[in-house]
Amino acid sequence: TTEESSAASDVYKRQGAAIGEEFFFRGVLLAKFATLFGGGRLALVLAVFAQAIWFGAGHVSQGVSGMIMAGAIGAVVGTYFVTRGRRALIPLMIGHGFVDTVSQAIYFFSR
Hints:
Blueprint: H1 2-36, H2 40-57, H3 63-84, H4 89-109
Helix pairs in contact: 1-2, 1-3, 1-4, 2-3
């Protein structure tokens, strides 16, 4: 049906968004913020929080509670990325995509 086709399309969009968000926020922006803040341990901490705030702000369509939740998740996965290094980026993309897909499926099947 058209509704199922639309749901499948939404899954593909969410997967693409998850890959893009993780690449940009953790793979690029976090490193740029760390450089901007002067390098070192404190700069990494500040960079994690800066990218998390930006990540949360990017979820404005989910309302204030959604922005806070996304920001908190951004801080957690940013910390994971900093402690694990670049090799963590692909697992973060997969995890983000999984969470988005499950939430979309719950929404779809609960209607």
